[in-house]
Amino acid sequence: MSTRTLISPATLARPRGRAVYWTVFSAVVALFALAFLFPVYWMVTGAMKSPDEVARTPPTLVPEQWRLDGYTDAWHLMQLPQHLWNTVVQAAGAWAFQLVLCTAAAYALSRLNPVFGKVVLGGILATLMVPAQALVVPKYLTVADLGLLNDPLAIWLPAVANAFNLYLLKRFFDQLPRDVLEAAEIDGAGKLRILWSVVLPLSRPVLGVVSIFALVAVWQDFLWPLMVFSDTDKQPIGVALVQLSQNIQLTVLIAAMVIASIPMVALFLVFQRHIVAGISAGSTKG
What we know:
Elements: H1 9-13, H2 15-46, H3 51-54, H4 69-77, H5 80-112, H6 117-126, H7 136-145, H8 153-160, H9 163-174, H10 178-186, H11 191-202, H12 204-220, H13 223-228, H14 237-243, H15 250-281
Helix pairs in contact: 4-15, 5-8, 5-9, 5-12, 9-12, 10-11, 12-15
């Protein structure tokens, strides 16, 4: 059975058809690349312009004079190293808590067959229908009562309860080959041994996706860190940029935004194949 495509193989085999196909394909790729990369270029070069040039109308596509003062001023005046470190600590802690507890809960619901396991899973998934804004006040009151304001635990503990990542892990665990797990049981491996030596090595793609989701969620969050961190020295980079931007030149602020976005862009470029592999891993039974 032949695969249906927009252009038939016979047309693609002709020189004219092949030329038209590659011309249209290249034009579409170039347009999409321009649409995605031009805002990045505009932000990076905007920090290299003078304040007057940034506010000029019509704007200039290329800086008249390439300046790096905006980046150096942003690094020192806005205390970016300290706020970046705060963000790394908060994101790393949330990632570790979420990966351990969500993996354990998903493994229990998938392989240990607990009593009322489906009811528990249904209750967990029901939380996805509750708007995140409706949970802000209860979470804040709970954190305040526990005395965790201005503490990284205020970020770590709420991040553990992630129903989407838990369900993603459970669906992946459900599709692991049963023969492999039964063979480990016959060899005398216990439940924890099977999880550590068999399930986790087979789950690297989905664990990579969950890790990226957890890190990005904390890195880009704004409202919750703004509420729990009143101490400016402990705020993450996203909140600090807003708090410190009142008396800062526009070019310095743009440079700070560029620096703040570099870690997430680098994370995506390094682990992009794991994202695709992890999302598609649970689509077929293996």
